[in-house]
Amino acid sequence: MSDQKEKPKTYTDEEVSAKIREHGLSEWYLEDGWLRRKFSTDGWPTTLMLVNAIGFLCEAAYHHADLSVTWAKVWVKLKTHSAGGITDLDFALAREIEDLALWRPDPGGPLEGTPNPFVKRP
Predict the structure, then answer these.
(1) How many independent structural domains does the chain possess?
(2) Are the CB atoms for 108 and 115 separated by under 8 Å?
(3) Is 17 within a domain?
(4) Which of 96, 93, 94, 102 is nearest to 120 (CA)?
(5) How many other CB atoms are found less than 10 A from the CB of residue 57?
(6) In a domain, 81, yes or no
(7) Which tens digits make up the pLDDT trace of 48-63?
């Protein structure tokens, strides 16, 4: 019996498109073998907070995204390097990133929420 874990299933381009829809990740897309998403923010401080929040999720998941960062934008790229493609790990992490980045307090709840544009919704 081997101690090595079996590689997770990788998805074809067509399967990735279906999985994007299945997971409700409408702003995510497949490009050059990566699951990608661009987030727009209201400026540098929010961009840095988003990068750190994504970093926290990635480290907690032990599955790491590639990030590109500019003044008011963060590009996220996901792929499972050890499997050589996009796997369920990438979709699960994309879902967590999406939920975290776009989370806002419930209207009428005790948390008021920022009056700033923050991370912009599509």
Answers:
(1) 1
(2) no
(3) no
(4) 102
(5) 18
(6) yes
(7) 999 999 999 999 999 9
